[in-house]
Write a structure and sequence with these properties.
ATP-binding; 19 strands; ABC-type transporter activity; eight-stranded mixed beta sheet; Rossmann fold; ATP hydrolysis activity; elongated; binds adenosine-5'-triphosphate; 3 domains
Length: 856
């Protein structure tokens, strides 16, 4: 936030400086500290004036440059450019180098992996970058250039060794990294594709805490300086080269002291490469900016002040291109590098006892056989005598300037303000603007996010919990009935109606009662069945009906015996049941039963049919008793069921539906998982595209990034929750006995819980696949174990305990209690819902913060 100057700390490098030199440095630092505050205000106004004039000068100079690509991929310069080059050479030869090395790397070791898979990438690397120079870090793919830059910008940690950036270890309180003093352009494009050029520069300027006016000025200048198109053009509408230059502009926008560029020229045509180098030379021309640039294209680094030729995790040589050319008397840097590699291999061979006689010739001063055709640009840098230094640890040699030894000591560098390490509202505002802008630019996604929750809610209310209907059911009704007006006792012979049931006497009964009205108790029952639930099909005989079930045409068969009515009357009329059971062939007990044969393979359908069969039984019994009274003269109460159900304590007389049971869980799961979906990929995409790296290097704090994501997604989540609740309650009429405010509050809390879970997933996952698998992986366990689709009471004991600590089990019960019992927060069931949700939310946040910090 501010730029306080703090007294300089003791720095290990100073310990190696002679005492009098150190004292001079400290005295200088103290006086500088006092002076700085006085000069601060004056400098700010001067800086603007000088920047504007510098911008004008550079733009003018830029137009003078005339680089062209040669047929062999080299770069040729016109006369104008050479004049211009000499200006730069003078600049870089002047003051900067006297100030010492901006970057010092000592005995750096870095490896990836462990055990047998361990890859040693940096192996005792030594590096010194003088202030105000262009340092070209050259080497083949995989030699460790990106790893080294990652360590410089504090994205990676060394296993062993030291790095000093402006005198301090990267990542420490006083260091330049992370912070506004460094500009970093990673290998990836690392730009928000949906942003325009000006929005991109605005974002990067704001995270560097630049004022709006300054950003505007710098944007204007950089667009002109880097030949960028209209600043309102979106990044994804730019050509590859323009995108690279926009990425370069993003690293330059805050005028960093140190510019770290990871292969800015990779994959771009020679013309654009030359133009990028031209810009580098321009940026460096004032002597204030130091540039470290990596490249595969060794020849282009002739324009650097100093090159580090890297192989196998260490530098083979570190000097100016002109010194190398002078030393080896070979015009091509590429050939020099090749020669150094051969020499290096030979050293290893010598170590292993193998000698390379051909190479020995070369070492002895034999003429090189390597020739480079074509025109090459002039080599830059001060030509110096080289010497071979031996690395005391590894024994490898490095070729460097004879005068280098003194330059390792550094100037008393300025410390970075402590405020840069603190939470910044301005940076948070920049991150929020960026997130909202991204949302806005992905309008399709936003609309989809708003449509999904109501769609899911509507689908749930329409598709789940409704009573199955039109269930095909077979009926075989052989019942011959019984005359209503005939008193059963009248047809008893010797108090025994046996004759009536013998097959050949039955027609007598039918004959006797031919003019009578018959009662068909079986029909009473069939009439009581709900025809919407059951779709009845009549079959002639039992076998046909039974076969229809076996063949899957019906879910069940209801079968009535020929003497169903008669036997039912006898069953209730004859005093002792045993009398009838004893009589062979007259199975009154069995014949008077409604026989049901079910296909129970679909339990929900079977339950529905059973419910219907039992429910219609009640209606049937009432109808039956009326006829029965007529036939037997006995009272109706004889058949009444011995139970009385009073008004329920909670809920209505009509049993609550499965929809009502599931509704609280559905509200919570839709909210929770939509929120997970919003955040689960947030870090990953930005991390993969190198965008997060850029933000971390700029000094953005993990808490700022997390808060910005939470606030942005909260806006989306609140709209989603509103839509879910509107659809669930007013539209689909789910009852609510309690206060809706408590329901809304718990739902929002669950949404936050989902968002923080998503953030946690994205913070710990390396790629989208892992994040998606984690997010989807918890979906089913959470739904199944939280009592959403089935009561927790139905689970084995061990699972119940697991279920109770899950974020949605108590929350679900709490919402059920509020909705259907009208309870409020004072009830244990309700407040436990809030407590468990809040506890999970906090746990997610803590893990996310730890994960971001560890992986930062
Ligand atoms: N995260 C990682 N895990 C394991 N190995 C890695 C990892 N990152 C890099 N490496 C390995 O470390 C070595 C150096 O990689 P690095 O990216 O630093 O090389 P480089 O010189 O920048 O290559 P290039 O020019 O192709 O970008 C390579 O062998 C690479 O495979």
């Amino acid at each position: 936030m501010g730029s306080d100057i703090i007294p300089i700390q003791r720095n290990p490098l100073y310990d190696s400086v002679p005492d009098d030199k150190r004292q001079r440095s400290l005295a200088l630092e103290i006086s500088q500290g006092q002076e700085r505050k006085k000069k601060h205000r004056r400098r700010r106004s001067e800086k603007r004036v000088s920047q504007i004039s510098q911008d004008i000068t550079l733009t003018r100079l830029d137009r003078k440059m005339d680089y062209t690509a040669t047929s062999n991929g080299g770069i040729a310069l016109s006369e104008n450019s050479k004049v211009h080059r000499s200006i730069f050479n003078q600049d870089s030869a002047k003051s900067p180098k006297a100030s010492g090395n901006v970057v010092v790397v000592q005995q750096a070791y870095k490896s990836y992996g462990s055990g047998k898979k361990k890859v040693h990438v940096l192996q005792g690397l030594e590096m010194r970058v003088p202030q105000g120079s262009i340092y070209g870090l050259l080497g083949p793919s995989g030699c460790g250039k990106t790893t080294l830059l990652g360590c410089l910008v504090n994205r990676l940690k060394l296993d062993k060794g030291d790095i000093f950036l402006y005198g301090f270890h990267p990542g420490t309180a006083s260091a330049a990294v992370p912070g506004h003093r460094v500009g970093y352009m990673p290998q990836e494009l690392a730009l928000y594709q949906e942003f325009s050029i000006s929005e991109t520069l605005n974002y990067f300027g704001r995270i560097h805490l630049m004022s709006a006016n300054r950003i505007k000025d710098r944007t204007k200048f950089l667009v002109e300086f880097l030949d960028l198109p209209d600043p309102n053009r979106l990044i994804n509408q730019l050509s590859g080269g323009q995108q690279r230059r926009a990425s370069f502009a993003a690293a330059l926008v805050h005028e960093p002291e140190l510019l770290i560029l990871d292969e800015p020229t990779v994959g771009v045509d020679p013309l654009l490469r030359s133009s990028i180098w031209q810009h580098l030379l321009d940026v460096c021309s004032t002597g204030r900016t130091t540039i470290i640039i990596t490249t595969h294209y060794i020849e282009e680094a002739r324009q650097a002040d100093r090159v580090g030729l890297m192989r196998g995790g260490r530098l083979l040589a570190e000097t100016s291109p002109s010194s190398l050319i002078h030393h080896f008397k070979i015009p091509s840097l590429e050939d020099i590098f090749l020669k150094l590699c051969l020499q290096d291999s030979s050293e290893e061979d010598i170590e292993q006892g193998k000698l390379n006689p051909v190479y020995e010739d070369d070492l002895d001063g034999g003429q090189t056989r390597i020739n480079t055709p074509g025109t090459l640009p002039e080599a830059r840098g001060i030509t110096a005598e080289l010497r071979k230094d031996v690395n005391p640890t590894t024994g490898h040699t490095i070729l460097r300037d004879s005068s280098d030894e003194a330059e390792i000591y550094m100037s008393p560098w300025v410390q970075t303000s402590k405020y840069e390490r603190e939470f910044s509202i301005s940076r948070l505002a920049a991150l929020l603007t960026k997130n909202f802008l991204r949302l806005w630019r992905n309008l399709g996604f936003l609309v989809f996010s708003f449509l999904m929750p109501p769609l899911q809610t509507a689908l749930f209310c329409l598709a789940v919990g409704g009573t199955p209907y039109n269930l095909p059911m077979a009926i075989v009704n052989n019942d011959v009935g019984f005359p209503v007006d005939v008193n059963i006792t009248d047809v008893l012979i010797d108090n025994t109606p046996i004759d009536l049931f013998i097959e050949d006497t039955a027609p007598d009964l039918e004959r006797i009662s031919v003019d009578l009205t018959y009662a068909y108790f079986s029909q009473e029952y069939i009439d009581a069945l709900n025809k919407r639930t059951l779709d009845l099909t009549y079959y002639e005989d039992f076998q046909q009906g039974f076969d229809s079930v076996k063949e899957g045409r019906n879910w069940g068969l209801i079968y009535f015996h020929k003497y169903f009515t008669l036997d039912l009357i006898l069953f209730y009329t004859v005093p002792t049941l045993s009398d009838w059971i004893d009589v062979p062939d007259l199975n009154v007990t069995e014949n008077s039963k409604i026989n049901v044969y079910m296909d129970n393979t679909n339990s929900q359908i079977a339950i529905t049919i059973w419910y219907e069969i039992m429910r219609s039984l009640e209606e049937f019994i009432v109808a039956l008793t009326q006829h029965y009274t007529n036939i037997t003269g006995d009272g109706i109460s004889k058949l009444a069921l011995p139970i009385k159900v009073h008004d329920p304590v909670y809920g209505s007389m009509a049993s609550s539906t499965f929809t009502e049971f599931m509704a609280p869980g559905v509200i919570l799961t839709i909210t929770y998982f939509m929120a997970v979906g919003l955040t689960a990929l947030s870090f990953i995409t930005e991390r993969k595209e190198g965008l997060l790296d850029r933000s971390w290097v700029a000094g953005v704090q993990s808490s700022e990034v997390m808060l910005a994501f939470l606030v942005t997604q909260m806006f989306v989540m609140l709209v989603q929750i509103a839509l879910i609740l509107v659809f669930m309650f007013p539209v689909f009429d789910i009852p609510c006995e309690g206060s809706m405010a408590w329901v809304v509050l718990l739902t929002i809390l669950q949404g936050f819980c989902g968002m923080t879970f998503g953030l946690m997933v994205s913070a710990v996952s390396n790629d989208e696949n892992t994040a998606i698998m984690m997010a989807l992986g918890i979906f089913y366990p959470l739904i199944l174990l939280s009592g959403i689709v089935w009561p927790v009471e139905g689970m084995p004991d061990a699972l119940r305990y697991i279920s109770l600590v899950l974020p949605q089990t108590y929350a679900c019960d709490a919402i059920r209690a509020i909705l259907y019992r009208g309870w409020n927060i004072t009830y244990w069931t309700v407040y436990m819902g809030y407590i468990v949700t809040a506890a999970w939310l906090l746990l997610h946040l803590v893990i996310t913060l730890i994960a971001i910090r560890v992986r930062k």
